[in-house]
Amino acid sequence: MRSAIASYAAPRLRRALIVSSALSRRPMRTLDPSRPQARLDFSATLERQVGDPGTGALVVMQGVAHATIALAAEQVGGAERCLEAAV
């Protein structure tokens, strides 16, 4: 199985050409059913390199940082709503 992030020696970000017959999706159980997740198998997909070799880890780390900020903002909104309901 190939991952979207390949090679430990020089991490590279790769883009997969998604064709329904080549991509396998398996639903995963989650604690929050409003946020479905799935395990993706890219073993039969065509792919292209994105960016320069060795920059994949940096791109992924930046994406995780942005996702963390977005999740924190969502949590602040949820906490604010709980406070409004309690007062």
Structure description:
The chain has one domain. A hairpin with a 5-residue loop joins β1 and β2. With 87 residues, it is of the alpha+beta class. It is flat and about 55 Å long. It has 1 helix and 5 strands. Helix content is 36%, strand content 26%.
The poorly predicted ranges are 1-8
Give a quick account of the main beta sheet: strands, pairing sense, barrel closure.
3 strands, antiparallel
Q: Identify the quaternary structure here.
A: single chain
The strand count comes to 5
* Average pLDDT, all residues: 81
Q: Domains counted in the coordinates: how many?
A: 1
Largest sheet strand order? 1-2-5
What is the first-to-last residue Cα distance?
Answer: 52 Å
Helical amount among residues, as a percent range? 25-40%
Structural class: alpha+beta
Q: List SSEs in N-to-C order.
A: EEEEEH
Gross geometry: flat
State which percent range the strand residues make up: 25-35%
If helices are DSSP runs of H or I spanning 4 or more residues, what is the number of helices? 1
Radius of gyration: 18 Å
